[in-house]
Queue: 3 jobs
Job 1
Amino acid sequence: MNKIKNFINNNKALSWVLGFQLFRLILLPFMGLMPQDAYYYLYGQNLSLSYFDHPGMIGYILRIFTDVFGQTIFVIKFADFIITSLTILSFYKLASYFLSAKKLQRAIVLLASTLFISILSFNSTPDVPLLLFWTLSIICLYKAIFEEKKWFWIFGGIAMGLAFDSKYTAIVLQIGLLAFLLFSNKYRKLLISPWLWISIIISVAVTFPVWYWNYLNEFASFAFQGASRTDSITEFKFSPNFFFGAIGHQMFLLLPVLFLVFITFTFKYVKRALLKLRIPQAKTLFLLAFFVPTFVGFFILTPIYWVKLNWMMPSYITGIILAAMFISKKLLKIQVIFSIVFHVLFSLQILFYLAPIKSDDTWVGWKELSEEISLLQQEKTDTFVFSDDNYKTSACLNFFMEDRIYAQNIIGLPALHFDYLGDDLSSLKNKNAIFIDSDKRFKNSDKKGEHHPLLDTYFDKVTELSPIIIKVNGKESRKFWVFYCENYKPSLLSTDK
């Protein structure tokens, strides 16, 4: 009787998971290109040991999928969907080590119902492979520690290395592992085990391409990700907006019920540790070791630093397993209801673009922009195109257009990985250019009336043309200012730096 009951319960949970995943799969063909998709696709089309902003795993994945299935927007989204689906399967395996059958079903429904899984399924970011390799790392480390399967120390090292090759925040895996062993009375002896250090050495060896790329490029990526942010944190400027913004982001990604469960059990365990000096039992401590450094650590920073909404995502893996130990059936139902409502609203926005997005972080308008610029280049012949918004416009145009599209390095400004693509800007000497500038707060169809002052430095003459207006569903939704720049002078770049 219990087996029949468990089978029915399992099928209910499986139905919810498959339902959410089927919903996401159906939406994929309707998703337009996001700037992140285009930028990391650019990674894959310019293979390198690593890249300026992040390691290259997401770029390698997109390169494999687009080489096999074709260079389309759907294939890029499909790659994210497949990798995230593997993360869900890996999570289920991991959760089964800690939870009873009933709580395991709650855990998998909690995970599948979140908006962060939808975001990972639709949008190419380094977090997509990071979450997969993060989960696989914890599975391997569990088997190495609790099941004493020594070969899994090696597999764990490989997985931790691949997680770091996805995103630098994966360094917290090694920190969590050492913290668990340090605080665990039963397993502290493993700190002197050669298998532990073999695992860590292997993890470092797997990350060698990232370190070597940084070595060849004056550690530019590490400096970009670390130094500037450390400086901002050490300034210690209190900002309530940062704190409440972080809470809003986390409630959005996890949905309110799950987020509040996170806060509840975090407070419970921290209180026990600080006031009663009670260390949780080994398996719970293991889960907390991969939750607290990322979730609590970043939350501590939120009053003084703007923590991006995706930085806490790795903590969700073990956090949701812990949440499943506490959440009631009633609260789970409320979580699913919230999820359905948010996903329906999300789908309406995707399908009908009901609310305009005042940002370049949107999936609409990029293809239409490329078509308008192609027509403009037929009129203004022998021109190259560039933009100045870090990467968004340049990356999206690079995806849709045959010619190389350049970024703000054309006018001597830092341009993320565009600075490392190996473009010979001197070959553009004396050429004319079309400069694209997005009007993020689109209010009217007027010209801008002014232009970037550096354009006058690198070009003899700058003329503003009529702006490009992109219509979505018959409504004017996006606007791009356009400037015709004559006689490019790249020789000034060397003296300007």
Note: The chain has a mean pLDDT of 93.
Job 2
Amino acid sequence: MNETGYTEAVETARDYYNSADADTFYFHVWGGEDIHVGLYEADNEQLAEPIAEASRRTVRRMAELAGALTPATRVLDLGAGYGGSMRFLAEVYGCRCVALNLAEVENERNRRMNLEAGLERNIEVVDGDFTALDFGDAEFDLVWSQDAILHSGDRETVCAEAARVLKPGGRLIFTDPMQTDDAPTDRLQPIYDRIHLGSLASPAFYRETLGRLGLAEMHFDEHPDQLARHYARVREVLIENEGDLREKGVSGAYIERMKSGLTHWIEGGQKGYLTWGIFVFEKGRGD
């Protein structure tokens, strides 16, 4: 542990996402509102569909799978980034949302965007670590997460905390870049190095772990092709906007590392070592 009380893995992710380079890149290239994998519609992979549109499509699809959403629904987003998903749920369904995220720089952007949207009363932005949630048992109707759990060095604890704060009958809905159940782990080392961890989760990991915690799988909307497609699209936009990013102060070293890192994700997806999709689990009612 360090002076913040965060584990080394959490502090590494926090430092990264708080950096000026990362904040500028994710806000201006990855989509700003939604910094997660998108669902692309066009059949032709060469068509340049906007990242923001594909990413928002993921949010809408997750909302469809989340069950009945009303102004009474209390939602916790684990790893909320800039908070686009919670703004969508608050604006469209009136949900009461908590956006928990470890990067204070992203959280400040999130709060400003909530104010600009007039949604600050519906959304509480919390600085925090999703392995140690400062909430009581059974406080939330819905726990939501998008492409964030992979950054944790203790994914079992993240799952346990999500299950703990869910009400009986509540749902956990999340996406995560995963290795396939039979992936050759030696081929994934460049990706492990990229996230500064020794593994990725797999569908089998989530099924086993959440099953032990009393959550039943309701749905897995699996789209392994979208993972490689999304990272390829992000890399294209990065290259197209490289000059503008440099003018905004993003270092050349960061841009080159990002190009290389994105390539590893693209190749892992294309070779069938990686998968991605929307998981939905429901907590038992105990009756």
Note: Residues 90 and 122 are 6 Å apart (CA to CA).
Job 3
Amino acid sequence: MGFLNLLTKKDSIKNKIGYEIINEKALHRNTSVTVIVPVYNAEKWLQRTVDSVLLQNLGRDNITCILVDDHSTDGSKKLMKKYSNMYENVVSVFLEQNTGTPAHPRNLGVHLANSEYVFFLDADDWLYPTGIKTLFDLLEETNANYAVGKTIEVNSKSEKVIGRYESSRERRNVSPYLIKHFFYHLGPRSRMVRLKLIRDNNITFPEMKFAEDKQFFIDVIIAADTVSTTTEPVYYLNRLDENDSLVKQTDIMQKMDTNIAVLKHVLKKNLPPEKEKNIVNRIIEFDSITRLFDRNHFVKSKNKQAYFDKFHKVISIFTAAKRSYSFEETIIKPINKQYYHFAMNHEYEKLVLLAKWSKKNGEVSYLSKDGLSYKQAHLEDGTKLLLPIEVKAELLKQDIVANEIKLEIQVLSHSEVNVESCILQSRESAIDTYRFKVDLSQSGNVVNVTIPLEKLSELDATGYQFLLGYNDYEKTLVQKDNEAELRVEIDSEKQLKLYKTINGNIGVKIS
């Protein structure tokens, strides 16, 4: 559907709100990608956000940036007008009244877009310089409808990669239902979608204060059916202390109400169970257990009964849907299974004690049973809960043989584990992650790792975490009980030290 046809269909926009457009002529120009930015009182961050779009290496001629202001009261409007007057590819849209949610501004941006693909960027976040081109090239290469890359969360102390299952490896046109946890972290970041897919399936952001992006991207992924992913960085997520985002302002009970709305939305689709379980796991385990109970706001709350009531409402909605699988089947993490058990048996005091133990670093002991590893949670009332450690890796032997590092690592697990690589993660930058497809051989529960020194010669001189990658995107630190260090010259300019960290794991230092 072309842009000129869309101009006659403004009545199709939900909750019609008047708006003014600056630089409307840019919307008549077909471009490769439209970046849609909902804006509300974002003056502090907006310049960095828009500049990160303008500096994309795909080129300004190939990108339209639509800024949709939700009736800001700060200097955002003035800054937007400045950009639209300076750059022919920046469109500013000003709503006549505030909607209270990014949903309407995003939907309006989709309505106005005139491009092959759309990309959503929040007004307080920013892009990696090659981010847009990375996803555009991936979609063009695969002819896919949906692509996602790496997101780096930036807080006041450090950086970390979030949603690592999305960017743990290069994938081309694969089923999202085969990627564990793919429906977690469904914020707008790092995703590019074919515009035609959104329009053909009438997909919109629901008018909710929270979880509107979750429902939207669940619908998009279902419609796309296959996805492509990349390990390349795309997006910086702003979680700096001074950033007072809408998510931070949202009460947990309001969040749960919107999560319940999304659960109902998904259940109404009557998807095949093997697909639905993948999506429902996120809403049940992550939103309705982890985010509800395993958080400091629950521990500190004076009205914990409200939490229990919300949980049982989720249970009742799922039960009424009469599925062929049980609620409990969707829960994976041992601690979440324990929360579920306590809640279902109305052992609320135990549940509270478990949450306190989890969030206040309560006493823990470790033990082995039948060759498997467990940690024992010591609750304040003397109860000891046995929680399986899914994967435990421990260095048994280290050596240098013929310019190769040789490691023997014991891997104990409660389920099948396929070790695929070793990973060096820079302690200074979340972007600098090196995954080596090294020589791996296994004998029983011992993995033999061989790393040629030449593979390490191009790494920056800094400190690294050492991890084993397994089962697609999972990873685990490797414990090192032996205090002995391994030192070796990588080349004439660099040396490597493998040592025991303060937390008892393998650390790597290249200097």
Note: The CA atoms of residues 7 and 108 lie 12 Å apart.
